[in-house]
Amino acid sequence: MASIKLSPALKALIAAPHAHGGPVAARSAADIQSTLHRLANSARENGVGKKAWLTLGSAALVTLNSPETLCALYRFVTKDASGDSRAETAAEYAAVMREAGLKTISFSGIPRAINNLGALRECLEPEVASLLSSQPTRQPTPTNLPDILSSANSLWNSIYAPHSTKLLHKLSQSHPDLPVHILSSHYGPLLADPFGPPPSGHAKVGRILTSVVAIACLRAQGGVGPQVTSHVFGLRKAGEKGSGAELEEKVEGGEWLTTEDGAKWVIEQVDALVQLVQGPTFARAKL
Q: What residue numbers bound the domain in which 101 lies?
């Protein structure tokens, strides 16, 4: 096959400044540290554990496409880890961040997840990266496919009941394969975790934190208010018996996050991260 080359003119067009083809640069270190300190302190005051606010921050920053800020979040969350277990602790946080980043695919797309997860990997210390598993957990097989599809329906119903069936019908009117793809490609194999306790070198972002990921992504990207509302309901419902959350490892602060105050807090923290990355433009837009 002949080699295909792009002309300088086409390359220049792709890289044109108005296209915003690159990631969003990080703000000053002082601004980042101030915002992350406020996030961590507010979480502590409300009994929200590090895994929960790290999930929130990771999902929002991947959506905002600021890999430098995502790496700053990793350095911030691991700065107090020390001693013989330092690498293990840092790897646990990195695993949470990459799992949250993976789940952003369902809400803010594959390209941002690819670029930001790649940047996160590059900013990990070698001894930390070596502790993360390289084994996939979501490969569909003829054996596990029925469980994947069952998990898709269970998660969908947990979030959207009592309107879940009606919503699937409405989606199918837009395109008959839309609900098929949503359930079979996202809710089953990605958003519904394929394991109980996470395998070594992996993290689990379970029922409650998956709703946090959804809200963080959708709020950060803007323009999708109806979907934010749907997943706020989903977060609230995660606190109800039968949601599936009661079968998982307890999330520190998870019970509070499923309250109205908790959902409000999630949105406010995402807004703070959006303002950090996007600057005064976002602040003026909210006035």
A: 26-137+207-240+253-279
